[in-house]
């Protein structure tokens, strides 16, 4: 039985607008310590998240202790602009809730990265070593390195990215495989640096080969919509304050076992090779 309903703290504006246009029906796909993922029958995704996770491109943020204790996987979910029901009982009230805008800023063309911040970002261009020496992990890592290099070269030379994206999509393990996380980081850099022409193609190609959650993040990224932690990183880099940049990078790096670091590898590699990274200003 679902507990007493409560009011959300905030909701992603694209999600709210989507619910206003078309009611949502789906099911609880996964429940975790700080979040709950809900998959719609039409492919839409809703993430219920606690403050430690933060706002996201398709999230409803809630500030309640142990909010997921009364729900289980596969429970039916319905949602509209009024609220979200689980198992035909109102679970979250959305009336009057504040919305959060996931659209990331873009850097002014006059921006030049400080040398100290470029050096800091460069530390995150490398892939993390696997936690164990299982041969399959090493094989996957070697493939990730090769295919990531292929993507970066294609972007740098203005060549087709199709093969590189297809080869990276879905590569790895977990809800968001490493290849997808890398692509997400690259997409964040493409958006920030105003190189947006390839974003839709990356999402279209990758979404066919990966998980529902990864696909939702990549689709959002193609529109410039990213989680709150990416907004903090963008603002930190723009501020040129090295301490703030380090804090923002560390926040992303701590996401999952590898997800944050994989995304940072894609982001930093592309960003440092862009004109914003190449034309570094001395500090």
UniProtKB/TrEMBL annotation:
It holds the Pfam family AllH. InterPro entries: AllH-like. This is DUF2877 domain-containing protein. The lineage of its organism: unclassified sequences, metagenomes, ecological metagenomes.
């Amino acid at each position: 039985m679902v507990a007493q309903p409560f009011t959300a703290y905030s909701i992603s504006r694209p999600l709210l607008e989507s619910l206003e246009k078309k009611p949502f029906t789906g099911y609880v796909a996964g429940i975790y310590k700080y979040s709950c993922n809900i998959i719609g029958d039409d492919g839409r995704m809703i993430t219920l998240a606690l403050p430690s996770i933060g706002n996201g491109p398709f999230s409803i943020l809630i500030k309640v202790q142990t909010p997921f204790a009364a729900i289980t996987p596969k429970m039916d979910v319905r949602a509209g602009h009024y609220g979200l029901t689980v198992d035909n009982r109102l679970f979250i009230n959305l009336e009057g809730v504040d919305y959060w805008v996931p659209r990331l800023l873009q850097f002014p063309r006059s921006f030049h990265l400080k040398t100290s911040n470029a050096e800091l970002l460069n530390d995150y261009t490398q892939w993390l070593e696997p936690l164990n020496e299982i041969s399959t992990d090493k094989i996957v890592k070697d493939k990730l390195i090769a295919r990531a290099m292929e993507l970066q070269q294609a972007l740098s030379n203005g060549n087709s990215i199709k093969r590189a994206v297809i080869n990276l999509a879905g590569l790895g393990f977990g809800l968001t495989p490493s290849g997808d996380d890398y692509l997400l980081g690259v997409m964040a850099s493409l958006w920030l640096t105003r190189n947006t022409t390839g974003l839709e193609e990356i999402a279209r190609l990758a979404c066919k080969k990966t998980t529902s959650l990864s696909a939702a993040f990549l689709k959002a990224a193609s529109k410039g919509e990213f989680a709150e932690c990416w907004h903090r990183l963008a603002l930190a880099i723009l501020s040129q304050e090295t301490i703030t940049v380090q804090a923002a990078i560390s926040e992303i790096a701590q996401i999952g076992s590898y997800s944050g670091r994989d995304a940072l590898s894609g982001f930093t590699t592309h960003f440092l090779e862009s004109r914003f990274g190449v034309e570094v200003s001395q500090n």
